[in-house]
Amino acid sequence: MNILFASSEIYPYAKSGGLADVSSSLPKAIAEYEKIISVMPLYSSVDLQKYDIKKTNISFSVELKAGFFAFEVYSCDGVYFLKNDYLFARGAMYGDYHDNNIRFGVFCHAVLEFVKLLKIEFKIIHINDWQTALIALLAKTRYGLDAKIVFTIHNLAYQGVFYKDTVDLLEMGWDSFTLEKFESYDMVNLLKGAVAYSDKITTVSKTYAKEILTREYGCMLENFLTTNSYKLEGILNGVDYKEFDPLHDANIYSRYDSVISKKKAKNKELLLEELGLNDVNRPLMVFIGRFTSQKGVELLLEMVHFLKDSEINIAIIGDGERFFVDRFLELSSVYKNLSITIGYNEALARRFYASADFLLMPSLYEPCGLNQMIAYRYGAVPIVRKTGGLADSVVDFATHNAYKNDIGVGVVFERADSFSILHAVLRALSLFCNKDMYIKTIKYNKTIDNSWSHRAKEYINIYKSLTKEG
Ligand code: GLC
């Protein structure tokens, strides 16, 4: 069966978050069983030389009310890149550009023009988040394809909402502008339309699939999603075990296989030195991620404040909203046990995993989250809020039979308030002080299978049931 996978970001070529990781590792895992190619925009930030991305002899154009757009196609390793510099040679991948509807809407048209030229009959087109959402409508209407559409929601908070002139500019057809389809409060909501037009909707954990049907997590689409919930399913993401492997990770100081080896301790010692923190005997708690409310950054700030004179080292790496960046910088200039690194730095992030005793993920919501699964590989224990994929991939260490149900073990708290996160940190300390228990935990977590191998099969089963090949 031929499958086309469309995404606005694919690691290592372009990455703003977990979508890029999944868009890289899931197609690779599916490729073990089925024929799959991926397609993404060619941003000017993509390093053609580094990844040996080559120009193909395919070119075409898209002509719409929005304008005339010529595309060239580049490729590398099963990924096709559609190049139009007017749309994608900009400072940021998404940014706050006023024409993001045109940029990604035209990209969706381009994907289907490209499909036409390839002359491959795709049975499945798998699209991801709002940027590729319009493909669902176009495949079924303008392009009249028989392909079944699978739409994965990685984060419901980003829906791609634009003024309704988008309908004309992208030639969507006004019959698609109804409350059952793209219309939302007199605006075009691209994610909503993809829910309507897709044959199957998936999201990245079972718990998040349930949460998005509620008022608390539904981002105003809970009723619409409930109406469409007959085609909704949650599949937990996996991580690429080749990519995240402390035995072969060139970014860390000292590579190791066993999470209790002296080499892991060496990583911690050298990272503390790099960050200007003292005392290897103290537990090191790290946060790796975007500084947005989603990630629970308010809670993190309060926690850091309370722990200022404690015997805990805290290291934070990430980037995001200016307000949070400023707060962190203020605190790190006064607190000796706190290190802040602003900016996305994959190599340093890997050293964080390899050195940490605990990984903090106090997310307010988390569709899946990948960091907790990466932490298991490197021997750091996650401290998480019980939501979305975190609820599905981390069991609290004090739960009955915690070490027996094939789910990694960490410290879990429920309520999003400063008391609860502090309580979780104290419980983590008690675990850390009980060396046998701590070692048992990191060793156990290393045995848990969060790779894509069986989860990719769940997607393949969906593809097969849609195409009746099951
Ligand atoms: C988004 C979600 C995150 C998920 C990732 C990949 O970034 O916020 O929870 O892990 O997509 O699906």
Across the major sheet, the strand order is: 3-4-5-2-1-6-7-11-12
Q: What percentage of residues falls in helices of 4 or more residues? A: 25-40%
The number of helices is 17
Radius of gyration: 23 Å
CATH homology superfamily of the largest domain: Glycogen Phosphorylase B
Structural class: alpha/beta
CATH top level class name of the largest domain = Alpha Beta
Element layout with pairings:
Blueprint: E1 2-6, H1 18-30, E2 35-41, E3 54-64, E4 67-76, E5 79-83, H2 85-88, H3 100-118, E6 124-128, H4 134-140, E7 148-153, E8 161-162, H5 165-169, E9 183-184, E10 187-189, H6 190-197, E11 200-203, H7 206-211, H8 222-227, E12 232-234, H9 262-275, E13 284-291, H10 297-306, E14 313-320, H11 322-334, E15 338-342, H12 346-355, E16 358-361, H13 371-378, E17 381-385, H14 388-393, E18 395-396, E19 409-413, H15 418-433, H16 435-447, H17 453-467
Parallel strand pairs: 1-2, 1-6, 2-5, 6-7, 7-11, 11-12, 13-14, 13-16, 14-15, 16-17, 17-19, 18-19
Antiparallel strand pairs: 3-4, 4-5, 8-10, 9-10
The structure holds alpha-D-glucopyranose.
Residues 17-19, 22, 154-155, 204, 237, 366-370, 389 line the site of alpha-D-glucopyranose.
Describe this structure in words.
This protein has a nine-stranded mixed beta sheet, sandwiched between helices. Strands 15-14-13-16-17-19-18 form a seven-stranded parallel beta sheet, with helices on both faces. Strands 8-10-9 form a three-stranded antiparallel beta sheet. 37% of the residues lie in helices and 21% in strands. The chain contains 17 helices and 19 strands. By secondary structure, it is of the alpha/beta class. The model has no long low-confidence stretch (mean pLDDT 96). Helix 1 packs across helix 17. It has two domains: 252 residues, Rossmann fold; 187 residues, Rossmann fold (3-Layer(aba) Sandwich). The protein binds alpha-D-glucopyranose.
